[in-house]
Design goal:
The chain has helices spanning 7-26, 30-43, 48-60, 64-72, 77-82, 90-105, 109-122, 127-140, 147-161, 166-178, 182-198, 204-216, 220-231, 245-258, and strands at residues 232-234, 240-242. With 260 residues, it is mostly helical. A two-stranded antiparallel sheet has the order 1-2. It starts with 6 loop residues before the first helix and ends with a helix. The relative contact order is 0.05.
Length: 260
């Protein structure tokens, strides 16, 4: 920013600088990219989108504490909690997403929930943030079932904002299934499977959860078919995607229980 004269001019130039950094970083190999983003973040510390790129690179390398420290150095969490005089920029949105991810990975649920609450206040119509928040609450529900009602509300809002997104359909369907709304869950999950196939990215997890929904609804044969389909599946390019060993074993156990 020191290169520019005048605050308004500097602000207009920030998006262009971010775009240039994205293009440059995308052409680099891993270590070179991290070094470049480290330098860019130091040179433009006020650019939250560049900071988000840097933090994302650290997270990808499981350097979570470094990413958390970098984010916290630029965010005033006390101010964010009040949501007063806070501009909901794309850079801030990304940093909240990454912060929630860090706390989830570090199993710090109270901090993760706090970040999600801030994000919901500042970005109440951001489908991705709401979807991630909903799914995280769902993962906590075995310990506290009261989380499910809030999760369903968030998932329904995300679905209303982005009804074509396979991941959002899957989250909503999974939460509905946990709530005992089997028929609606089957509808959402079948749409998630279909949508993923349409975009050439079939997802075995979606297929398995659709099988769970059929099983919960009493249709054992349909459930069995989904579990078989989930062990391996072929994308539109003809490439077979294999599940991890643990996932295959889990699916095989479900198949064995349904097979005479």
């Amino acid at each position: 920013l020191a290169l520019f004269t005048g605050q308004a001019h500097a602000q207009r130039c920030l998006p262009k600088m971010h775009d240039a950094v994205v293009v440059q970083a995308s052409q680099m190999k891993e270590q070179e990219r991290l070094d470049y983003l480290t330098s860019a973040q130091k040179r433009y510390p006020a650019d939250l989108q560049i900071l988000a790129l840097y933090a994302g690179e650290l997270i990808a390398r499981d350097r979570l504490d470094e990413a958390k420290q970098a984010i916290s150095s630029q965010l005033d969490w006390t101010k964010l909690k009040t949501a007063k005089n806070v501009e909901p920029t794309e850079g801030l949105r990304l940093l909240l997403l990454y912060s929630s991810l860090i706390y989830q990975k570090q199993e710090q649920s109270a901090q993760a929930l706090e970040v999600f609450e801030i994000a919901e206040q500042l970005f109440p119509r951001d489908a991705i943030l709401l979807n991630n928040y909903a799914y995280y609450l769902y993962t906590l529900s075995p310990q506290d079932s009261s989380y499910l009602a809030k999760a369903e509300q968030l998932a329904a809002t995300a679905y209303g904002l982005a009804p074509e997104e396979a991941n959002i359909l899957d989250t909503y369907g999974t939460i509905l299934l946990a709530q005992g709304q089997t028929t609606m869950a089957q509808l959402m999950l079948s749409q998630a499977v279909e949508r993923a196939e349409q975009i050439g990215k079939p997802n075995a997890g979606y297929i398995e959860r659709l099988g769970d929904a059929y099983l919960q609804g009493g249709d054992r044969q349909a459930a069995l078919q989904q579990y078989w389909d989930g062990t391996t599946h072929v994308d539109l390019g003809g490439n077979v995607e294999l599940l991890t060993h643990d996932s295959v074993e889990e699916l095989q156990q479900k198949i064995d229980k349904l097979t005479p």
